TrEMBL record, chain A:
Belongs to the Rab GDI family. Substrate-binding subunit (component A) of the Rab geranylgeranyltransferase (GGTase) complex. Binds unprenylated Rab proteins and presents the substrate peptide to the catalytic component B. The component A is thought to be regenerated by transferring its prenylated Rab back to the donor membrane. Substrate-binding subunit of the Rab geranylgeranyltransferase (GGTase) complex. Binds unprenylated Rab proteins and presents the substrate peptide to the catalytic component B composed of RABGGTA and RABGGTB, and remains bound to it after the geranylgeranyl transfer reaction. The component A is thought to be regenerated by transferring its prenylated Rab back to the donor membrane. It comes from Rousettus aegyptiacus. This is Rab proteins geranylgeranyltransferase component A. GO terms for biological process: intracellular protein transport; small GTPase-mediated signal transduction; vesicle-mediated transport. InterPro entries: FAD/NAD-bd_sf (IPR036188), GDP_dissociation_inhibitor (IPR018203), Rab_escort (IPR001738), RAE1_2_domI_C (IPR054420). Residues 625-637 have a biased composition (Low complexity). It is found in: Cytoplasm, Cytosol. Residues 452-580 form the RAE1/2 domain. The keyword Disulfide bond does not apply.
TrEMBL record, chain B:
Residues 172-195 are annotated as: Disordered. Keywords: Cytoplasmic vesicle, Endosome, GTP-binding, Lipoprotein, Membrane, Nucleotide-binding, Prenylation. Belongs to the small GTPase superfamily. Rab family. The keyword Kinase does not apply. The lineage of its organism: Eukaryota, Metazoa, Chordata, Craniata, Vertebrata. This is RAB31, member RAS oncogene family. It is a lipid-anchor. It is found in: Cytoplasmic vesicle, Phagosome membrane; Early endosome.
Amino acid sequence: MADNLPSEFDVVVIGTGLPESIIAAACSRSGQRVLHVDSRSYYGGNWASFSFSGLLSWLKEYQENSDIVNESPAWQEQILENEEAIALSRKDKTIQHVEVFCYASQDLHEDVEEAGALQKNHASLTSANSTEAADSACLPTENESLSTVSCEMPIEQTPSSDPESALEVNDVEETGEKENHCDDKTCVPSTSEEESSENVPTAEDFTEQPKKNRITYSQIIKEGRRFNIDLVSKLLYSRGLLIDLLIKSNVSRYAEFKNITRILAFREGRVEQVPCSRADVFNSKQLTMVEKRMLMKFLTFCMEYEEHPDEYKAYEEITFSEYLKTQKLTPNLQYFVLHSIAMISERASSTIDGLKATKNFLCCLGRYGNTPFLFPLYGQGELPQCFCRMCAVFGGIYCLRHSVQCLVVDKESGKCKAIIDQFGQRIMSKHFLVEDSYFSENTCSHVQYRQISRAVLITDRSVLQTDSDQQISILTVPAEEPGTSAVRVIELCSSTMTCMKGTYLVHLTCTSSETAREDLEPVVQKLFTPYAETEIENEEVEKPRLLWALYFNMRDSSHVSRNSYNDLPSNVYVCSGPDCGLGNDNAVKQAETVFQQICPNEDFCAPPPNPEDIILDGDSLQPGASESSAMSEANSETLEESANLQNSETSE
Amino acid sequence: MMAIRELKVCLLGDTGVGKSSIVCRFVQDHFDHNISPTIGASFMTKTVPCGNELHKFLIWDTAGQERFHSLAPMYYRGSAAAVIVYDITKQDSFHTLKKWVKELKEHGPENIVMAIAGNKCDLSDIREVPLKDAKEYAESIGAIVVETSAKNAINIEELFQGISRKIPPLDPHENGNNGAMKLGKQTTQTSRRCC
């Protein structure tokens, strides 16, 4: 490490998930000196998103159960007599039951790697751990030949339709090992090479043979950097806490968003679009005139249900689904309202829950588009990074690949006073914020966790094809049996910058009952068909084909109360990993609560000054006489704009 | 009225080579010896004419996240150009330049315009990096290169003019931002109409 870390801060934040990153930004904005570290090589922890090769590296880490305890200087001898240590965990135990299935044709003879090279060492520049980064892919030299070869798709090489025998996890590791042969230095592609290899295949393959756009595994690998695969699948409610915070703090300027374009429902084996906005309802072809009136009337009532208690008081004791039956709604409409608009449990949610959820959905409509949801370009994993940038802009110091060995507690005061990092450096601070996966078993011995079941699929077409192939959809598949939970399906198209052209990235999420595959595979089978089964020359298959699938369970600690951890000093704060919910309110609430404890009475993420307003020298914004007309034009434009921004701000 | 094109430019290079000073000179024509590392400025803007377009540069600074090699991938997203800075008086900073280029190729957009700036050329009496080396390297990666002095305002305008010239003209087939939106106070629609 070329540079040493300062040894004193106000707030040390361990973990770069969304809540930690928001807190880091808020503290830094309020003038606290913040050190923000993560033992991983990427931002976001379980909120991260990965390119395809990045995801493979991530998987490999969990499969190998990497127990690489790199020898760090012992911290024990640094603990003084009047001190105690709380050792932190060196191993992440939040991901389990990882299973990978590849259905796309794998051309095993080709040594394919991701063009442009991208590794789990996302942000790494160091040579210190370049051996780890060695699976950094080198540029394939035979790209052109490869893409033509793979289009032929030799049948004998396609995996069988049975997922059990489909090439699993091991193949993935093999790929990783192949990549290891590549020497770092020879990997740097020259510009010209890169351009030719990247531009040739995709565009032409698809335009020339639109019917045979069979995507092979090697294409996925090669176009791997087009993928940004989120570990958590969430959306932003357009009037949710996170959108409000992004706008208030001006962090929104670091990201771009797209509206979810469709709400879908899965009924009687078919996927259909749910009309939810006024325009949708009127334009809907699947609803009769009578249904349209019923639905409009009911939704209008939900918007202001609180003003008409007499209309629902009598039903407060029953479930929302029972209540819906008492309303003038056809079964079709009841289904839409319950599963696609309120998105609540059929068996467990009360009338009030349902009315509240429906109202929330309706209130979010129309702010940015025809559905209540937004999705960040490049994936949800961008958001923690955006808040980290805000923290850094206000002086926060960032250190990935930096682990903390222990917290040092002063016996007398009972407060935490320092950390000891992987280099044995002692760093003093007033407050310590720890993401809960960093705690050791000793600290968590009484904690009970829930689990989230996740699946990530790459498919070749949308679950509901329409004129536009660039739809972003959310679909809720209701629970079939009691005790299981509804499965949320989010389908992303390539213009969200999360998958390569010609593919869709599908995220499935539910509260776990069993392993992720056991929970989610039934839904996957209903909606998709494995790639190989359709090899018979049947171009008009009804279901989208599965090219690749990943299942895993992620620990859900969002409900764990701070008191369940053993012996935490009062100035050690805990952040949980992602929750199972669709929105991000939980993360924002957590962040605000912790921030208020660290900085009582301070504004939470106050907006920074506009860049145009930062005047380093009072005269410098005046166009100087000697400057060219271009310069003065430039400056006046700048001034005018900053004036506009100020106006809009003060008028709020 | 000429069309304004917003172009994101990200700055790369080791801590202390003068990245912020270059922006500061370009945007505000100002130089400060003790510029504090990038506090509070998330990005700075300046508009310059180029042909029949106006290029509005949104110049992103690293905010110090490069110091411990922790730049986030989001930093590179959607950049039209990158300015990679080294210090002509520090051979080391030229070495790491190559690593920054590699990083950029991994995370940056494919057709990003690369510009290499050998800063502190006012200190050429203690020069460690010959201009020839920089030129050879720049040529090998298809980047433009120029030696600059943020302190004496040498070649700073030229650096950005060079970038402007290398930005490809707007592709009429591409509908700009492919429907993505920026959220902000100004864009908030006030209509609360639902259903």
